[in-house]
Amino acid sequence: MSKIKFIGKRLGMSVITLWLITVVVFFVIQLPPGDFVDYLVENMVAEGETVTEIEIEAMREEYGTNRPFFVQYADWMKGILTGDWGVSFFYNQKVTVKIGETLGATLAVSFITMIFTYLLSIPIAIYSAKHQYSVGDYLATFIGFIGMAIPNFLFAIILMFLSYKWFGKPIMGLPDTPPTSWPAIKEWIKHMIIPIIVIGTSGTCGLIRSTRAQMLDEQARPYILSTRARGVSEPALTYKYAMRSVLNPVVSGLGGMISGIFNGSTITAIVLMLPTQGPVLLKALQSQDVYLSGGILLISAILVVIGTLISDLLLMAMDPRIKDLEESKNEQ
Amino acid sequence: MKVKRRLLSIVLALSMVSAALMGCGQDNTTTPSGDTGTSSKPTTAVGTKSTPTPEIKNLEKEAPMLAEKVAKGELPKLEDRIPKASDVMVEPDVISLGQYGGSVKITSNDGGRWSWGPYTEQGMFRFKQDGSGEVEANVCKNFYSNADGSVWTIELREGMKWSDGEPFTADDVIFYYDHCSVPALNADRTAVAVDSPDYYNCFTTKPYNCYQVAKDGKKYWAKFDKVDDYKFTVTFAAPKPSFAQEVAVDNKWMFLPKHFYKDFVARKDGVTNDPTFPLITEEQALENANKAFGKAWTSYKTMGKDVGYYNWDYAIVPQLRSFIAVKDNWNKVGETYTLVRNPYFWKVDSEGRQLPYLDSIEVLIINESEQAVLKATAGEIDLFSPASADFVTVAMATKDTHTIYKWTSADWGSPYTIALNQTAKDLDKRKLFQDKTFREALSIGVDRTVLSATLSNSEADPYQCAVSEGNFGYSETWAKKWTEYGPGRANELLDKLTEPWDRKEGTYRKMKGTNKDLEIVITLADASQHGDFISLITTYYKKLGIKISTKVDAEESKAKLNNDVECSIERPSVSSPAIRPDDIVPMRNFKCWTGLYGKWYEDGKSEKNGGIAPTGDMLELVNAYEAIRNAVGPDRNEIINENVKKIYKLHEENIWIIGFLSASPSRWIVNNKVKNFPKTAMSVDEFRFASMMRPEQLYISEQ
Questions:
Q1: Is the ipTM of this complex over 0.90?
Q2: Three-class SS state of B510
Q3: Is residue B636 part of a domain?
């Protein structure tokens, strides 16, 4: 019963959080001065068109940008709840269709990066913790700090430039042809190297640091000591017992990770010219395309909330201490 | 983003240095070509490489890929695709005959319809390649007018087809004009008032001046009449001698495929019995368009502008263009937008072989200019027109594979200018700005050699905002007027215009009769623009007791509409005021320097919306422009010439916009395998930029 109550409570909180996020998102994207009509007028004037105040007002009426904030918000929310996410002013396309267009590439880049991050960081972290202050540990620590310290976009620029210097061709963007044949797959792999390294490195390094620290903590715990004293083998100690605690930070980072997959590292994607969600979001924000930017940010927020919910539930399943804590709170 | 740009520029600078070092090494071992910029002033030795005429092996009449389709029965044979022999357009060779095949790579940003558009566009009339400013027939076969220029006859090419194989006839032009291009009209062909219940705007939402004439204070729209399938007339209520030229600037695409657009245009004339153009409501038209174009337009008006005006954005729209799109991915960064040869293209070369020579033009969609520069530096772009700051980097890195061509610029000097609003809101400032001696003080108060050293590596010369050397209207006195640095005289001039100033550090002059600091606020659209220039002039003007401040307004153009900008950095770019007067005659409402005078003209010479009727020399500009527009009869060219000169003279006398440095030429860095690239042309909007290279005649040869 308490488990259901716990889940129910979390769900309730998620809904309230989401609602608050929609208000903030809609408010924040309208913060910059002007609206989409101003963007249009600016472009029309730049193209040498004659624009009068009457026409500008008519355009505001048409796009509905002259309505009060809460009327626009209520309209948007009504649409969201009924499945109509509105039409992107800039692309004249349904927001959901526009988001769907880049979803494939975004997910591909993000998933591969995520797999890269986990596959690389956890073994390195365990090795570092088990061989604290060894040459290998120092090397991993050094690379880890460098990776965390270099901003992604700068790293991307440097790698792009090096690819030009070494291979005579700057590698950026993704190939036009889908990876259906062997040469095309090879081309894709070639183009994925830089994004994976760039987007993956900071995550990998962060994960190495936190996993290593957690592992070191666990190593020193009395239960490990006593288990070791009872003659349990080192691999079993590491992977069966300590590992459960070590996975805690990994799981609790799921919320951010899931929304990161959807956003596809905005700035890095722009620097590397990746056809992912990031550049679309930037364009939407620049042109004050309220519904498109609102839609993307909302999905992103939903994913953070869902990710957090999942990680809460997973943590509860993995770590009985959390359940006990919740229960003891209820008993009081 | 700013940090990113700075870092990338550092990386690029490093690459430049290393490329320079590598370049030096190579020069010792290979024969220097001597045609690219290896000196600090690469412009001094450019564009001299002669393009050898490669031997064209087989003079097939059409591209092999099209011949293959004809053989398979997928495409009609050549004679059935192009106009009949007497009507087909024969293009003189730009340099030599070409061979079929290959493609060129260019770049554009994701909103770049205006940058890749000129590579393929075909207007009814076009400006000659020689830069004379004369127009010639292009889509049409011939055009002529009656004696006073009030009735124009236009003949089309028999057998000419849209890119989907449907015939192109006078119906397509008249359909475009009557149903897409004119707003609601009264019986006398004046426009219905905007606030009238009968009002509607044109389908493409852009009414053009080229179709209207003024008579007795009213503007009348022309009437188009079909003579036969290949001939139509355009009748004006008063003489319109510059019709063809105005169309070539304003609305060269004066046609749309009726068979395609009939489903998206709601006709307003109430005719119900026309099977070629059935009467549908705006809602039906919108629904049809959303279905056909896969979009979600919510208003007929927006849809009309998108599919009518920006029609080349959509691959499904039949075109008369030389190259046509395959899919609509022009707004997807990182993708390649491919334009392939139009199988029905209606031009042939001097041997009667169908153009274009190239199979395709590949447009790499890149938003960040640094990425485009990196690609160009790696030699991946075949036709690249770099910004001045990037020129040396790209030119040096590609010196073995690319050639530099220098086109003349229509710019009036460098972009570094000060345009003072002659109708500034602050009346004290307005009075000052209108004073010629004040403008002289501002002009001579800046040391242009320092400006040039800082802003252009001393490449640019001290220059006024004036016609560039080599172009019609150039005058050395004008170009050099008020360009000599004279802070003493500047202070003397200012002393007469302001309250006495004790020249104490940190203080500014007070405007005459006021306690207000003499401050000039420059409005910028983007804070990152012109930073170096502004800090330099701020220092110089501080010495004169003038305070310079900046105001960043992303909607700078809109602020100009409201007359909220007192000073702006705007530089005219004009081939001739007879062709495009907007930048140098007060006739538009979005130029800072003309302010409310432009609004007055834009509002039909009326002060009712806040415009101000110009006087003196400003009025003279308008009069000269109108004399050009209304010139008829045998002396027409003379009248035009005389008034163009008059407009230039008025600018020379008044220096309404203060310029500082000479214009940089428009440079192209072109892959050596791309042939037929013209050595020189004028790069300007009215001549349609890249269209001047005649892209359909470019071809690829490894020789």
A1: no
A2: strand
A3: yes
**CB contact B557 to A (< 8 Å):** yes
Residue B548 has pLDDT above 70, yes or no: yes
Do residues B395 and B445 both lie within one domain?
A: no
Q: Does B177 lie in the same domain as B280?
A: yes
**Structural domain includes residue B184:** yes
B301/B445 same-domain check:
no
Q: Do A93 and B296 touch (CB under 8 A)?
A: yes
Find which of B250, B371, B373, B524 to mutate to test the A interface (most A CBs within 10 Å of its CB): B371
Tally of structural domains, chain B:
3
- Which of A198, A199, A192, A204 shows the shortest CA–CA distance to A105? A192
Q: What is the CATH number of the domain that holds B605?
A: 3.10.105.10
pLDDT of residue B259: 97
B307-361 pLDDT, tens digit per residue, is 999 999 999 999 999 999 999 999 888 889 999 999 999 999 999 999 999 999 9
Dihedral over Cα of B200, B202, B205, B206: its sign: negative
Quickly count: other Cβ atoms within 10 Å of residue B476's Cβ.
Answer: 9
Q: Which residue of B has its CA nearest to A279?
A: B333
Is a pLDDT exceeding 90 seen at residue B89? Answer: yes
Q: What is the pTM of this model?
A: 0.82
B9 part of contact set with chain A, CB < 8 Å:
no
Domain membership flag for residue B38: yes
Whether residues B422 and B406 fall in one domain: no
Contact A42 B554 (CB under 8 A): yes
CB-based contact A34 B333, cutoff 8 Å:
no
Distance of residue A156 Cα from the nearest chain B Cα, in angstroms = 10
Q: B178: distance to nearest CA of chain A, Å?
A: 20
Q: Looking at B281, B313, B345, which one is the last position of a domain?
A: B313
What is the extent of the structural domain holding B522?
A: 417-659
* A93 Cβ under 8 Å from any chain B Cβ: yes
Give the per-residue pLDDT at B58: 61
* Domain-located, residue B490: yes
